[in-house]
Design a protein that fits this description.
Elements lengths: L1 H21 L8 H28 L4 H25 L4 H9 L6 H9 L3 H4 L2 H11 L15 E2 L14 E6 L6 H13 L6 E6 L5 H10 L6 E4 L7 H4 L8 E5 L5 E6 L3 H6 L3
Parallel strand pairs: 2-3, 3-4
Antiparallel strand pairs: 1-4, 2-5, 5-6
Length: 275
């Protein structure tokens, strides 16, 4: 056990040294340099994660400590991701990443960077979506569901009235990301609750109706209510709901007040708030 503890500490020290050294990279503000630094960041994170997975398998008694280390490195990875997006915001890929990391950036900081960029970038599709994000108050727990035009799997405008008087579990994508266990947990929740009391609605960021139905067929998930507006980054799910990670989940009470908002399917919190 002593050797196992030393191994864990050694891995953490190596990872920390690699993390610190990557901060020293400097370069001109170019698309090529952004792509290079971004590649280094995530390839390093992937290698570090592989080491932690190996430790997880070889030292199950240290799983809590290893998970804590992983979460710390994920947080550091996100911090560096944001830093690169801010640094390279004037490049095409950096600007795109700026939108993707918008929820991790204080709005005054994001606004200052946005206003410093060229008019062409500000008026681009990504720029307009960042502007919309800045001008919109995103939903959080305690807010009421925001209803917006979208279509169901048949291509028919979705009638939000079918949810009246019911709790709603609204998911932004994520059937793949939640894994087989998450999909099984969702299925079990569906099976042990009544559609008179709870509806599970999955908004899928599809390009077309065919894409939406392909997802439903792939996951054999026809029981749930699937919707989409096919607007991608300009969708209210991105702008008003503030979604980026999949799944992002919203559980409401029967008055459609959001009682749980989570990145990932947090079944413990969801189960606690099922009426």
């Amino acid at each position: 056990m002593k050797n196992a503890s030393i191994t864990l500490k050694a891995i953490v020290m190596v990872l920390c040294m690699a993390s610190c050294s990557s901060n020293k990279q400097q370069g001109d503000i170019t698309e090529a340099n952004y792509l290079h630094e971004d590649s280094v960041l995530w390839s390093t994170f992937e290698k570090d994660t592989e080491k932690l997975v190996a430790l997880w398998d070889s030292m199950p008694s240290k799983s809590d400590s290893i998970l804590e280390v992983y979460n710390a490195f994920l947080e550091e990875g996100n911090r560096k991701n944001v830093a690169l997006a801010l640094k390279y915001a004037s490049t095409p890929s950096g600007f795109r990443r700026l939108f993707m990391t918008r929820n991790l950036i204080a709005k005054d900081t994001l606004k200052a960077v946005f206003n410093s960029l060229s008019e062409d970038l500000q008026k681009s599709e990504v720029g307009l979506n960042i502007k919309a994000h800045l001008e919109t108050e995103q939903l959080s727990e305690g807010d009421t569901l925001f209803l917006f035009p979208c279509k169901d799997k048949e291509g028919v405008p979705f009638d939000w009235e079918v949810l009246k008087g019911k709790q709603v579990l609204l998911l932004y994508g994520g059937l793949g990301c939640m894994g087989s266990q998450g999909r099984e947990n969702l299925k079990q929740l569906y099976n042990r609750t009544s559609r008179n009391d709870l509806e599970i609605v999955i908004f899928w960021p599809s390009n077309t109706l065919n894409d939406l139905n392909s997802v439903i067929n792939h996951y054999a998930a026809d029981d749930y209510l699937f919707i989409s507006d096919f607007k991608q980054d300009a969708s209210p799910m991105k702008i008003k709901y503030g979604c980026q990670a999949t799944p992002t989940c919203f559980l409401t009470d029967k008055n459609h007040v959001i009682v749980v908002k989570s990145e990932g399917l947090d079944m413990n919190r969801i189960e606690t708030h099922i009426e």
